[in-house]
Every structure is written in C-alpha cells, then in structure tokens.
Design brief:
Layout lengths: L3 H7 L11 E5 L12 H4 L5 E4 L17 H11 L8 E6 L1 H15 L7 E5 L18 H11 L4 H4 L2 H20 L12 E6 L7 H5 L9 E6 L10 H13 L1
Parallel strand pairs: 1-2, 1-3, 3-4, 4-5, 5-6
Helix pairs in contact: 3-4
Length: 249
C-alpha cells in the first residue's frame, strides 16, 4: 500500500495531481531532485515539473540507495502509485535515462496509464553492449579521474577526501544500478521517444544515442547540443520548452 510519506519522499518539491500535465524527471548518478529545481521556473503555466528524489541523497540521506534496477523500480511503482495517471511524460539523464525507459516498460507491462512521451539524454541505448570501464567498484583514487572526465562534480569535492567519503557511496550505488543491468529484449514502446545528446559527451556518442530509435515503434527524434555529458545544464531552457510543448500537444 502506498503511504503519503513514501510519495513525499520521492516528490520532495511537492505532489501534483493527474488533472495537470506533468513531467517526471529522474537525475543522473549521484544527483537528486535539486538538479531540476530551476526547471520549475522555466516551465510554462499549467505544466508541472516533478523532480524525483531517489534514496541516499539530500533529506533521504539515511535511506539506503538502491544498487539494482528492479528493486528501484519496485520502490518507484509502489511509492508513486496513483501518480502515473492522466497526461504525463518521463525524462531521465544518464542513469536516469535507463531508469525511465525501464519504468515505461514496467508501466506498460502492468497495464497502467503510459506516459505520452519518453525523453532521455546522455546515455547509450540500453540494448547496446557496455563498452566503458566499470566504475562502481573502483577506489576513490581510481574513480576521481573518471569523474573529472565526465564532469559535473565540483573540484572542491573531488579534491577533499572527507567530502568524497560522503559522496561516493551513493554514487557507487547508482553506478552499480547502471552497470549491473542487463537488457531484456521485448516489444518496442508504442510512445514517442526523444533523445538529447552532447556532441562532446564521453558517455554517449551520436551513434549510441541514435540506437534508441530501435526501442520505439512510434515517432523518434534525436537532437544534439554543443557540450559534454552535462550539456543539459546550459541548455535547460531549450530542453524544458521542447519537452513541455510536446507534453501539452
């Protein structure tokens, strides 16, 4: 049974109602709902931006972070029962792209109301082989160079062992979710799928992004931006405008 506290934990910026169009946003590894806080100000009136807060960060710091995708999806589905109704779309960046794609598949399998659109960014299509180094088991000294290459983590954190000790357990758990998952073939989704990428992203090149087209039987679109893995930050206005327009139409 869904509890109000479980729902609030996943939606720390406030619950919404199915009578309004909503965009649920899942963050990259190590990040939380705060990554999308500014998006709420960018959205047009009448559309709700709903950032999701996975366990293990911010006010959920004492909640154990998931290390596998299936239990994470079980948690999401149980905690947000009643939220995935009406007109809504899903968006995820990097790890979040994997999560929202598999969430859309789970919603379809369980006969729930499906999203009207799926938006993903910054991740190779999940059915492709993982050709990058596995990160979740690395020591701090081994991991830091990879985090510098990916970007997004302040140097004040990377250069401070005490801060790293706080940050890395959740990040490793998220990397484990991403790296341990094995794609199970199935029928492509029947909803539009839009993919965004950065032209200098070390985590997903254009070919790996275009391969998402195989995972939907509906309209597919790929849009590339100038930038690295976190191209989404300087281009947030364009992304929110495009996603909310698609959601309303």
């Amino acid at each position: 049974m869904t509890t109000a506290s479980a729902t609030r934990a996943w939606l720390p910026l406030g619950e919404t109602t199915p009578d309004r169009p909503r965009l649920f946003c899942y963050p990259n590894a190590g990040a939380g709902a705060a990554a999308f806080a500014s998006w709420r100000d960018l959205a047009p009136p009448g559309v709700d931006i709903c950032p999701l807060q996975p366990p293990g960060r911010a006010e959920r710091y004492q909640h154990k972070a998931h290390t596998r995708l299936e239990p994470l999806l079980d948690d999401l589905m149980a905690s947000l029962d009643g939220q995935f109704e009406g007109t809504y779309a899903l968006y995820g960046h990097s790890l979040g792209a994997l999560v929202v794609h598999e969430l859309a598949r789970r919603l379809r399998a369980e006969g729930a109301t499906e999203p009207v659109h799926l938006f993903v960014s910054g991740r190779a299509a999940p059915h492709l082989p993982d050709v990058r180094p596995q990160l979740h088991g690395l020591t701090a000294s081994e991991l830091v160079p990879h985090l510098r290459e990916i970007g997004g983590t302040p140097e004040t954190v990377l250069g401070e062992p005490d801060l790293l000790d706080v940050f890395l357990p959740t990040l490793r758990a998220d990397f484990a979710v991403n790296e341990a998952h094995r794609y199970v073939p199935g029928a492509p989704l029947g909803i539009p799928l839009t993919v965004y990428g950065g032209n200098r992203d070390p985590r997903a090149d254009e070919g790996e992004l275009r391969a998402w087209s195989e995972l939907t039987a509906a309209d597919f679109r790929l849009r590339m931006f100038d930038g690295g893995h976190f191209f989404v930050n300087p281009h947030a206005g364009d992304l929110v405008a495009e996603m909310t327009t698609a959601l309303r139409t």
